[in-house]
Amino acid sequence: MTERKLPTHVGAIAGRYIAMFLARLLYRVTITGRENVPRTGPVILAPNHTGFLDAPLLMGTCPRPVHTLAKKELFKGPLGWLLHAVGQIPLDRNDPSRTMIESGIGVLDDGRILVVFPEGTRGAGDFSELRTGLAWFALRSGAPVIPVVFAGTASRGRTFGAMPGLRSRVEVVFGRPVVLPTGGGRTRSALDAATEQLREALVAHREAVASRTEERK
User: Fold this and answer.
1) What biological process terms from GO does the record include (predicted)?
2) CATH number corresponding to 30-216
3) pTM (2 decimals)?
């Protein structure tokens, strides 16, 4: 049997420090709930997604190195080389490949952190509609899912112009782990039920963050 090739862990460690340095240099970053991320073992981070800054910001603020499923269009030229070098994983959102699935499961089986944007693309970031990929990885691996919400990264970042200005205040809030019931099976009905359970948990976390942010104004 051919040994499964995993994304580089050393690269992910280096990427974390680079992203951490740039985040602190360019923005005023607040991190809440870091203690909710288990110190060891497989973990899935499920962030909302509104802007270009989300993925690198998460890379630099998570207490452990991460491997992010990112759209394959980014893996071209110098940027593509860099993403591979820091251990990120290309994803075809319309046709997930066996290689991508094996890489993601391999990351979790190796006790690392996998980042799955559950909405599949940038948008309102309200978790109103989730793709089933997040639930599939959670059911397959048994890893806890950590909801993540960004505040201040963008309202709806379809362009680089929507990114926050230099030294703007941005916040990353890690929620409490969500563990799906074991033995739920991998049928379509089980996958749909798990997706809905995760959606409710993610929406509740986002609403709690929004309420707290509103109270501080």
Assistant:
1) phosphatidic acid biosynthetic process
2) 3.40.1130.10
3) 0.91
